[in-house]
Amino acid sequence: MLVLGIESSCDETGVALYDTEHGLLAHQLHTQIAMHAEYGGVVPELASRDHIRRLTPLTQACLHQAGKTFADIDAIAYTQGPGLGGALLAGASFANALAFALNKPIIPVHHLEGHMLSPLLSDDKPDFPFVALLVSGGHTQFMAVKGIGDYTLLGESIDDAAGEAFDKTAKLLGLPYPGGAKLSELARLGHSSSLHFPRPMLHSHDLNMSFSGLKTAVLTAVNKIKAETGCGEALPEQIRHDICREFQNAVVDVLTSKAKQALQQTGYKQLVVAGGVGANWQLRQSLSSLPGVHTFFPPLAYCTDNGAMIAFAGAMHLSSARPTGSFNVRPRWPLSQIVK
Ligand code: ATP
Ligand code: MG
Ligand code: FE
């Protein structure tokens, strides 16, 4: 069965074709990062319009890449939520219109389920059950995954997501949007010895986390250093690198400690890391070296938003494919509410 996957929840338009026998046949992505960069963040109206512009050419490119035609598609999966309402509607309308025209069934997919199952797109993939750490721009959660559709929330960030903390901290260090990945590259050049940032909720005895205070700690440190050195707006380069390193150390320490706790609590031996922060080199190093645990990361291309994970999640839910009719999007949609 050939599933077309459509992702448009935020600032990436992703389209992919997943074949239940032969795996991922094609995927195409357009990122709007450059378009939003001059505003320092995602502008929802611009995002929706750009998704509309990109969906048709990306779908055609996908079919071409896979050597398939519209007639070969058996079902269409799309991101129903959570995300930006207008952006979601662009993808949902496209997917449902195409399904109607082709007379094919439709499968609404939860964006975070897509992220969470994305490590299953690798050759080296986990078996059920496993602990999933979803660590993205909007979410930081631990889930116990017993099977497709069988997810239990173990704990989550009570305020900012880790990716959001990376982006906000990058912004206050003067790095261009979106700064998370850039911050992590500068962290390679830093040493943390001269600074210490808090590890929030490290000892909270549950699997909840908090990252918003970390950004405030960075701000306080920056202001202090500026006052002490009289450097004005431009922080000395090495100090900026050191701040990046210690910030990253703090996030990685918390995520690693909570991951250990989640594995202990469930007794599972496999950890799956998904979402954009899963691309972080230090987090990968730290979680890969947990003793007695097999840690899985999606290929880097599938860490951030993409169509492949939606096509794949859709393929896992083929049994719930249904004819298209009226449809909706769900901008706010906790993963725990998925009822199969
Ligand atoms: P959600 O899936 O929760 O709706 P999202 O789709 O915006 O959020 P993703 O696309 O999965 O999130 O990931 C984007 C986030 O990942 C951004 O916050 C970005 O800064 C962060 N990120 C990407 N690369 C890195 C990196 N190397 N180190 C740290 N953070 C990173
Ligand atoms: Mg994105
Ligand atoms: Fe995402």
Average residue-wise pLDDT: 95
**Superfamily at the CATH H level of the largest domain?**
ATPase, nucleotide binding domain
| Form type | globular
Element-level helix/strand string: EEEHHEHEHEEEHHHHEHEH
Distance between the termini: 21 Å
Radius of gyration, in angstroms, nearest whole number: 21 Å
- What is the CATH first-level class name of the largest domain? Alpha Beta
Number of strands: 10
Q: Supply the number of structural domains.
A: 2
**Helix tally?**
10
Attached small molecules: adenosine-5'-triphosphate, magnesium ion, fe (iii) ion
Work out the helicity level. 40-55%
Widest sheet: strand ordering: 3-2-1-4-5
Instruction: Tell me the β content.
Output: 15-25%
Major sheet characteristics: 5 strands, mixed
Q: Provide the low-confidence segments as ranges.
A: none
Any overview of this molecule?
By secondary structure, the protein is α/β, with parallel strands linked by helices. The mean pLDDT is 95. It is built from 10 helices and 10 strands. It has a 5-stranded mixed beta sheet, with helices on both faces. Strands 8-7-6-9-10 form a 5-stranded mixed beta sheet, with helices on both faces. It folds into 2 domains: 153 residues, Nucleotidyltransferase, domain 5; 174 residues, 2-Layer Sandwich (Nucleotidyltransferase, domain 5). Fe (iii) ion binds next to helix 4.
